[in-house]
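name: query_chain
kind: protein
chains: 1
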Amino acid sequence: MRPLFLILLVGSASAQTDPFATLDTNRDGKVSAEEVPEALRGHFKSLDADSDGFVSRDEASRRGAPTTPAESEQIRDVDYVGNNNPRQTLDLLVPKDHATKKRPLVVFIHGGAWNSGKKEDGLPVIRAISTSGHYVTATLNYRLSQEAAWPAQIHDCKAAIRFLRGKADDYGIDAGNIGVIGISAGGHLVSMLGTCGTAKMLEGDQGPFPKESSQVQCVINFFGPTNFLSFSGDPNRPNAITALLGGPGPRLKENAKEASPVTWVTSSSAPFLTAHGTNDNLVPYTQAEEIHNALVRAGVESHLIKMQGAGHGFMSEDLNQRIRQFLDNHLRQQHGAISGEPIMIR
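structure:
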């Protein structure tokens, strides 16, 4: 698996699984910063070797050798609710032999301040994970805050997990081993999935599989907010968090508590790996400490990786190796040690 930012910019062997082509939306043979998901732009300049404002395929390939992907089938725009709403769809990468072999599932949830972003932002990430051949992977849309306020977003994410469990036989999924990865706002949502799995009030009634569980077996949280009571901005001024929570008003504090992953931490919460930059000026590093400390107090496995000097987005081969081991530990029972040492980002 390549570093999470780097995989967005390094091409692979076939057009069907080509992260570079996925990002090159205007098909001009180069990728601009605007074509990269906002949460992952922090290291664009380090890849732009000639400083012309674009990353060419050659520049991308110099920073990492492409891997040969395991053969898989991409299934697009699966309606996981049944409402014909594009914001309630997901894409999958399913190994070609899924009919005869079940694999764990890894689901990516995009960021974008709950008011932007799309499932396609996660395609390069799930393609990189799927190259090992060990996982079925998926990336999903959810309703944004301008369409529906909280708790619509967690209702959708839970509906997607229930749907994928309900369709496990169709997609070759080992329904007992599901992990989730999220960036920024997506980090918040995967943290909710990992902590409120048994909270019936947050299940919602979306989708065709209400009796399936929405619990997940492990969480990878990249710089997601975890406590809106300590991080919400000015409650009297519009911002992305108050928009998510339904706007200023008498229920804002109650909604903030309900939407905070730290609220729901119990001894049955999923294991976490959280990576967060110490110089993040959008989501403070203390948000990572809050969820980590709450999990440790509850007796839950939690790995907090301090990305020393990093902002809201980073890349690291060291981190990437820890992520791979964490997934293998909890989804494939291939156990190994995970270092908790900080990682320096220059």
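note: Residues 1-17, 64-68 have pLDDT under 50 and may be disordered.
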